[in-house]
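tool_call: predict_structure(chain=1)
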Amino acid sequence: MIQADVHDPIAIGSLAIVVLLSAAVASFMAGVLFERRSVERTIQNARQSIGRLFSIANQQLNRAAASCSALERLPEITLSPSQRELFVDRQSRLGESLKRILDRARETMPLKNAKLGGKSVAVQWVNEPLESGVELPDRSAFEANLLQLLEACRSNNASGGVGLIRIDQLERIATRFGEERLHEIRRLVAEIVASVLPESSCQCVFADDTFAVLQPNIDTTELIGFADKIRQSVRTHQFRSEETGVEILVTASFGFCALAGNESPAMLRSRCTEALARSAHRGRNQLHCHDGERLIECSAGRDLELSRVAGLAAT
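tool_result:
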């Protein structure tokens, strides 16, 4: 306990400062504790209301964002090991939680039909230059065709779609079976995709392991069926190390997008690659379609595919 001489004004002043500081700290801690309990109580009471829970989450995220912004503006930031560990833990937990929320929300929202109701369009595709080996228009031709498709559909208020098909783990195939067989598998996948495309479609090379498909006059619902037909054609094909050799496990990931309004080629490519990345993350032969607002998981027969993979792995 601090004692002060009642006749010493300096001692009395020091004691007063200590008392005031102690009171301020106690008041602050009480406020923090009350606020935390208040938020916890509010969350508990709002568990049955999505709207209220969203509002609470939004308020807390805004506060956290404002606090972190203030912290990062400091001229120098020094964190102890425990503080750094705490930030890393919160970053991981919060990021994973937000991702799960967005995934579930996207998958349960009703499908948006992207049919625009305009007249049908005929796109004059650019078919050169060709990429040797697969004999398909190369990436530069894809970019030209993408622009053609967007402009034709926009000017005629027509619908359309674009898809990416990426062969999974192409490097592993090259390592195990050689470059020659790798090129043969690329050619086979391109032929399998082409075999189910209508004449109005265009297939191009997007990357070494990825093909692109462009299709006018197709709405979101039709696009999903169109994309799954392509997926099934690749999924059910038996690839072999040679004409009568052992079966090679070749799978692919599929990401398709319906055209959405006045977006640029870059915006459409971004949505397609997002759909493709989600499919690759979910596993083999998965398909996601983007309807202009959200990703939709469209893969069917997942259990059948997993059992087929397990059977091949056992052999």
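agent: The chain is about 55% helix and 15% strand. Proceeding to next step.
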